[in-house]
Recover the amino acids of this structure.
């Protein structure tokens, strides 16, 4: 059961990451690319969290906290930069 779950989650996270990369590549505006990058980071957080849940260890919890804070601060900074450029 665990192997089947791991394969299914790997497939779902891979498809999500590919779609996020497509949005980053094709996005007509800077804000579309920012949303794609945020989605890619969220997918990475979900994959690391799922790996920790499947293997039943909490050693990656600090990594998840740092990545989520980095994603939040990065998204806010990029959006502030994009708004300043449009004005």
């Amino acid at each position: 059961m665990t192997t089947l779950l791991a394969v299914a989650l790997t497939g779902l996270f891979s498809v999500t990451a590919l779609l996020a990369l497509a949005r980053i590549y094709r996005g007509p505006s800077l804000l579309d690319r920012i949303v794609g990058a945020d989605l890619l980071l969220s997918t990475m957080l979900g994959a690391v969290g799922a790996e920790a849940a499947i293997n039943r260890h909490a050693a990656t919890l600090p990594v998840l906290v740092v990545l989520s804070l980095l994603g939040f601060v990065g998204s806010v900074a990029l959006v502030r930069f994009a708004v300043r450029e449009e004005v």
About this structure: The chain has a mean pLDDT of 89. The radius of gyration is 15 Å.
